[in-house]
Amino acid sequence: VLGITPFNFPVNLAAHKIGPALAVGAPIVLKPAPKTPLSALLLGEILADCGLPAGAFSVLTVDDEVAAGLVADPRMPVVSFTGSGPVGWAIRDAVPRKHVTLELGGNAGVLICPDWSSDADLRQAARRIATGANAQGGQSCISVQRVLVDRTVYERFLPVLVDEVEQLVVGDPWSPATTVGPLINRAAAQR
Known about the structure:
Layout: E1 2-4, H1 10-23, E2 28-31, H2 38-48, E3 57-59, H3 64-72, E4 78-83, H4 85-94, E5 99-104, E6 109-112, H5 119-134, E7 146-149, H6 151-166, H7 186-190
């Protein structure tokens, strides 16, 4: 198995690939995101001390450009990828005879219905949406990415949502006052 993981949740998403592969006795090569290789290397150290057979688990910390060669490698008949839709579909299209498992970026939507329209309901929904869209700086496939609001409550809901977003505190992730921590790099922050 070739397991390709993204930068966000690097231990958890690697475990989603490592555990099932090892459980069925399939050797796995983990290719972590270039921005977060250290957690994969630490997992490799931990697993090396677990008595696994030689070659059961490997970590390759290579740039994303090298991944195409790994995907095409016939010694890995299974590719498990977590990341963006365009990259995932390109992987699947590149190796139509392999078993490819894709966990792609979401489009997590929230629906505000007309029966959820009291001021308290709208405030609670706005607070949860503001937090859900910005937790982990929005760097999560399950963060709120779109909000569909019934026309009958839209005019009342919009300023409440804007107010809740404006109350978010960007800053040091170790500070209890911070609700939105840092992004992976400058390009992500600018985006």
